[in-house]
Amino acid sequence: MRVSIRRARSDDVDFLVELVTHEDVEPFLAAVRPKDAASIAAEIERSEAEPEAFGVFVIEVDGERAGVMRFERTNRRSRIADLGGLAVHPRFRGRRVADEAARQLQRHLFDDLCFHRLQLEIYGFNERAQAHAERVGFVREGVRRKAYWRHGQWVDGVLYGLVAEDLSGSS
């Protein structure tokens, strides 16, 4: 099994809409994430126009589309990027596809785009995503208690960070 990532293209829009609206995916994504074709197409255009500041990446397994993830530069001077929108289609789950894809994105952001810090926030109920973040090197930094209204209740946001030095010596 070969996992790879690439920037999303306009011909990925239909796959991305199907993925982020899938009943086993959508409940775990940020409520504000784009889920319609026009908004996703606009994000892809921005990814192409601002490759050092914003990116939508398609995850592929043996050349087949399997997922998506995003980054956005949030602080130019301190070289910080927020990560989010990681979603793997249910038929590819259980094979650590997201782990390998996340490591590839980390290397790209640290080595090619010279970011110093990557950060992300995960809903407190999403234990699978928290375990993933920790497997790929992120350090749990805190919790925003009852910060988001989701699924009819207030939920926590769990904060994670990763700095370039955390990966020193790892491949």
Can you summarize this structure?
The protein has four helices and seven strands. By secondary structure, the chain is an alpha+beta fold.
Write the layout of secondary structure elements.
Layout: E1 3-7, H1 13-20, H2 37-49, E2 54-61, E3 64-75, E4 80-88, H3 97-112, E5 117-123, H4 127-135, E6 139-150, E7 153-163
Helix pairs in contact: 1-2
Protein described:
The protein is an alpha+beta fold. It has one domain (3-167): Gcn5-related N-acetyltransferase (GNAT) (Aminopeptidase). It is 27% helix and 37% strand. The chain has helices spanning 13-20, 37-49, 97-112, 127-135; strands at residues 3-7, 54-61, 64-75, 80-88, 117-123, 139-150, 153-163. A 7-stranded mixed sheet has the order 1-2-3-4-5-7-6, sandwiched between helices.
Order of helices and strands: EHHEEEHEHEE
* CATH architecture verdict: 3-Layer(aba) Sandwich
Strand content: 35-45%
Helix content: 25-40%
Radius of gyration: 15 Å
Give the strand order of the largest sheet, numbering strands 1, 2, ... along the chain. 1-2-3-4-5-7-6
Task: Tell the overall outline.
Answer: globular
* Stretches with pLDDT under 50, minimum 5 residues: none
State the oligomer: single chain
**CATH topology (fold) name:** Aminopeptidase
Largest sheet: 7 strands, mixed
Average pLDDT reading: 95
What is the number of beta strands? 7
